[in-house]
Specification:
Length: about 80
């Protein structure tokens, strides 16, 4: 997956996140449903950003960015900010 596809995926996930929050505000879904899906979205977004960082690091090191793989959900959620 190239960087453009990763950015497209990020845009799609962010759009879903905004739609979910809007539907919650309008009372179309309950807080539990929103909360569960938001947690999934956040983790997937973190994995996408992680993959972009790994691809950029691979490029900078003269390696093939196509070999980069995102960290697991547990791994990316455990990174220190």
């Amino acid at each position: 997956m190239d960087d453009t596809k990763i950015f497209e995926r990020i845009d799609s996930l962010v759009a879903e996140e905004h739609e979910l929050r809007q539907r919650r505000t309008q009372g179309q879904i309950d807080a539990d449903a929103e909360s569960d899906r938001l947690a999934e979205l956040e983790q997937t977004l973190d994995q996408c950003w992680d993959l972009l960082r790994r691809r950029r690091a691979a490029r900078a090191a003269g390696e093939d960015p196509e070999e980069a793989r995102a960290g697991s959900g547990n791994q990316v959620e455990g990174y220190l900010q």
